[in-house]
Amino acid sequence: MKKASAIVYNPEEGVPKLLAKGRGVDAEKIISLAKEAGVEVVEDSTLASLLDAGVNPGDFVPYWCWEALAKILAFVLSEESK
Question: What is the set of domains in the chain, with CATH numbers?
Fold first, then answer.
């Protein structure tokens, strides 16, 4: 089943936060809304599973997910600079 998560980062908080997560139809809606808003969508099934299992919307993303998030951010920034 498809999973999706939306993550937000506020520099004042210093830690990324899970904005939303969903499975199936809800995941497709999150992806669709992101694309409509011009947000880069990156697939990482391992990270999606970790966030789905252990983090609730509104919670800060645990430190053990930060490395995966950093790699995604680096990819997104490199794509935007093209």
Answer: 3-80 (3.40.1690.10)
